[in-house]
Write a structure and sequence with these properties.
Distance between the termini: 17 Å
Strand content: 15-25%
Order of helices and strands: EHEEHHEHEEHEHEHHHHHEHEEHEH
Helix content: 25-40%
Number of helices: 14
Number of domains: 4
CATH superfamily of the largest domain: DNA polymerase, Y-family, little finger domain
Oligomer: single chain
Structural class: alpha+beta
CATH class of the largest domain: Alpha Beta
Number of strands: 12
Strand order of the largest sheet: 5-6-1-7-8
Length: 362
């Protein structure tokens, strides 16, 4: 029997705006626009859900956004902050996925077909990823779960914000039938208009067209449209890097000055990282502690051992690395721990046996 693929598409909710609201609590619950100023020629890069209620959306001129909502807060983007959070999120993805394909700073495809956690249930894996993103970044994400990239991406938009939507293999074709073509990923406004002129309004309409007709009208893209009308998408999830480390971090609700409290939290994180390491049959030699202070400055301190790291090693190493920071004198907002320098033989892992029951898979 052919392996049933399990794909998750994770999309952060109003990412840039949510980071700003997290870092500036005074923005919470208010219409927030990340982009240019109202009197500039800039455009909206992102906006909060409160701003969207006024009809504001990405790529809209800021001057128009201001006319729609004069009391909105306008802030300039902080791309360094967004990249940092994006890096945190991707590390969470790598805890569960064998392949991670980022589409932008705030969304990615994950292939969890070979993931053993939660008995291989993609739905439970997606729930765990969402939970860890919230715990470690204080941000919400929406996830779509299905058997190919096309459906997983559509699913992630079905229940925003903070949503989780699953399209099972037996539901795919029926789901696509009623979907307006404008909702199809890969069909933009111009193609949508062209399709509507041909009487193609829904997935079912699109399915009535032959491959020859679609190729004649849309060129090479005709094959893609022919397939997705039948809920078929064989595109693989393509990673852009090989996993080189495993880690976990957490952001405190209130800044922490106590070294024992920081040490305890790092040891707690260490236990989780070691557990993930063992599940993936990996052994690491380098320990890295990350500390971000209340002023958002951050440092990392690392050491490499001669033998693979154990929990006992971490109980000794973590306090030593923490002493090499300003913990105890400067308030800390985030700590993290990662393990790297994997033994080469440990990366040659066997693929776990897959459960083929569709209920278990999804």
């Amino acid at each position: 029997m052919t392996r049933q693929r399990k794909i998750i598409h994770v999309d952060m909710d109003a990412f840039f705006a949510s980071v700003e609201q997290r870092d500036h609590p005074e923005y919470l619950g208010k219409p927030l626009i990340v982009g240019g100023q109202p009197d500039s020629r800039g455009v909206v890069a992102a906006c909060s859900y409160e701003a969207r209620k006024f009809g504001i959306h990405s790529a809209m001129p800021c001057a128009r956004a201001y006319r729609l909502c004069p009391h909105a807060i306008f802030v300039r983007p902080r791309f360094e902050a967004y990249r940092e959070v994006s890096s945190q999120i991707r590390e969470i993805f790598w805890r569960y996925a064998s392949e991670v394909e980022p589409l932008s700073l705030d969304e990615a495809y994950l292939d969890v077909s070979y993931t053993a956690e939660f008995n291989g249930s993609a739905t439970l894996i997606a729930q765990a990823i969402k939970r860890e993103i919230l715990e470690e970044t204080r941000l919400t994400a929406s996830a779509g779960v299905s058997y190919n990239k096309f459906l997983a991406k559509i699913a992630s938009d079905m229940d925003k914000p903070d949503g989780l939507y699953v399209i099972r293999p037996e539901q795919g074709e029926k789901f696509v039938e009623t979907l307006p073509v404008g909702k199809f990923h890969g069909i933009g406004p111009a193609t949508e208009t062209k399709m509507k002129k041909l009487g193609i309004e829904t997935g079912l309409d699109l399915r009535q067209k032959t491959l020859a007709e679609l190729t004649e009208r849309f060129g090479k893209a005709g094959q893609y449209y022919f397939n997705i009308a039948r809920a078929i998408d064989e595109r693989p999830v393509r990673s852009q890097r090989i996993r080189k480390s495993l880690g976990k971090e957490t952001t405190f609700a209130d800044d922490v000055l106590s070294v024992p409290e920081l040490t305890a939290k790092l040891l707690e994180l260490a236990g989780v990282v070691l557990e993930n390491l063992n599940k993936q049959q990996l052994k690491a030699r380098t320990v890295t502690v990350k500390v971000k202070y209340a002023n958002f400055q951050q440092v990392t301190r690392a050491t490499t051992l001669e033998q693979p790291v154990t929990l006992q090693d971490l109980k000794t190493v973590i306090p030593v690395l923490l002493k090499r920071t300003e913990a105890g004198t400067t308030p800390v907002r985030l700590v993290g721990l990662s393990l790297s320098s994997f033994d080469e033989q440990s990366t040659d892992k066997q693929v776990p046996q897959l459960a083929l029951d569709l209920i278990e898979i999804f």
